[in-house]
Amino acid sequence: MASQSLRGRVAGFVESRWFQNTVIAVIVLNGITLGLETYEGRFSFLHERFLLIESLFVGFFAMELALKMFARGWSFFRDGWNWFDLFVVGVALIPLTGSFSVLRLMRVLRLLRLISVIPNMREIVNALFRSVPGLGTVIGLLFVVMYTAAVMGEKLFGRISPDYFGNLGTTLYTLFMLLTTENWPDISDSVIEDAPYAWIFFVVFIVISAFIVLNLIIGVIVTSMEEEVNAERWEEDQEVELEQHQAVMLRLEQLSSQVAALSEQVGVLGGSPGEKTRDAAGPDTKKPSARKERRAEKRNRRR
């Protein structure tokens, strides 16, 4: 029981708003120091201090993960984002000497922990992962379009402009530049003098790839994000409806108990409420007949 109460207090501490804000602030500060380290000539005198600061950051992140693991128990390992945090922080604990020195570059990945800490960013990334099946189909369609256009472009313009359409690989790279609509007039000008009909090829390819297929990709991502947001709202609505249903049922139980108590009181007093109302109305109905008798007696006395 003592360990459970301690775990509950640690969980409340880790999940508190101020602790989460502190983690975000430390991640941002770590990113700033990593950026300052790139100015080796200007901040070379701070090299030893950067090492000390780096050790402090690693110690803080290790302590944070240890507290989360203690607070959540085995459920900590059920979340994929926790595995990501373990990997990013665990890399920093590997000795950065010899063949492992290249792993020092992976310190920059700690900046990506902002995604796992900030809920809104986490929702966006989850929506992107959820859209992977649909994106795979659309990207496959885009590849088919580009490959077909590359083969046609190499056959049509390979001799005219070998710099852009000399072989299949070069043509694919050229079509990728057309897909981004970057410097496409230079590409078209290189062949349009010798092939006046080339504008048809460029216009059709740009319309299909850049305007239609890319918009399909954006549509799939937006739909997945809407589903992610709606799913969370649906869960919240279900919780609210459950609470309201429980409140209504509790109120009905109270009303039913009150009705049962009233019926018992009526039974003890004897008679139903209808009989009581008739008994109460009885004297009022007898009043007109009594008045008639009194009037008849007065008339008899006068006579």
TrEMBL record:
<keyword id="KW-0175">Coiled coil</keyword>
<protein>
    <submittedName>
        <fullName>Voltage-gated sodium channel</fullName>
    </submittedName>
</protein>
<feature type="transmembrane region" description="Helical">
    <location>
        <begin position="51"/>
        <end position="71"/>
    </location>
</feature>
<dbReference type="Pfam" id="PF00520">
    <property type="entry name" value="Ion_trans"/>
</dbReference>
<feature type="transmembrane region" description="Helical">
    <location>
        <begin position="83"/>
        <end position="106"/>
    </location>
</feature>
<feature type="transmembrane region" description="Helical">
    <location>
        <begin position="18"/>
        <end position="39"/>
    </location>
</feature>
<dbReference type="InterPro" id="IPR043203">
    <property type="entry name" value="VGCC_Ca_Na"/>
</dbReference>
<dbReference type="GO" id="GO:0001518">
    <property type="term" value="C:voltage-gated sodium channel complex"/>
</dbReference>
<keyword id="KW-0407">Ion channel</keyword>
<feature type="transmembrane region" description="Helical">
    <location>
        <begin position="197"/>
        <end position="222"/>
    </location>
</feature>
<keyword id="KW-0813">Transport</keyword>
<keyword id="KW-0472">Membrane</keyword>
<keyword id="KW-0812">Transmembrane</keyword>
<keyword id="KW-1133">Transmembrane helix</keyword>
<feature type="compositionally biased region" description="Basic and acidic residues">
    <location>
        <begin position="275"/>
        <end position="296"/>
    </location>
</feature>
<dbReference type="InterPro" id="IPR005821">
    <property type="entry name" value="Ion_trans_dom"/>
</dbReference>
<keyword id="KW-0406">Ion transport</keyword>
<feature type="transmembrane region" description="Helical">
    <location>
        <begin position="127"/>
        <end position="152"/>
    </location>
</feature>
<feature type="region of interest" description="Disordered">
    <location>
        <begin position="268"/>
        <end position="303"/>
    </location>
</feature>
<feature type="coiled-coil region">
    <location>
        <begin position="235"/>
        <end position="265"/>
    </location>
</feature>
<feature type="domain" description="Ion transport">
    <location>
        <begin position="16"/>
        <end position="228"/>
    </location>
</feature>
<feature type="transmembrane region" description="Helical">
    <location>
        <begin position="164"/>
        <end position="185"/>
    </location>
</feature>
<dbReference type="GO" id="GO:0005248">
    <property type="term" value="F:voltage-gated sodium channel activity"/>
</dbReference>
<dbReference type="InterPro" id="IPR027359">
    <property type="entry name" value="Volt_channel_dom_sf"/>
</dbReference>
